[in-house]
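Recall the central idea of this unit: under ordinary conditions, the amino acid sequence of a chain determines the structure it adopts. In this exercise we apply that idea directly, starting from the sequence alone.
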Amino acid sequence: MVKVNGTELDIAGKTVAAYLKTTDYDPKRIAVERNGNIVFKSRYDVTVLEDGDSLEIVSFVGGG
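Accordingly, the structure predicted from this sequence is:
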């Protein structure tokens, strides 16, 4: 199980990119933190989620 923004999900074994494809997140407008470390966008395709990982995904919102 992987905790994503506080919710346990059964996505261990998927890459960050594969998980994001199942969501409504716009990869161009988010930041992903895995176990306290930023995951660079260039690494989404090769970063494999492991059982016990914790992801925090933050969306950037424009405005002013």
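The first helix runs from residue 16 to 21.
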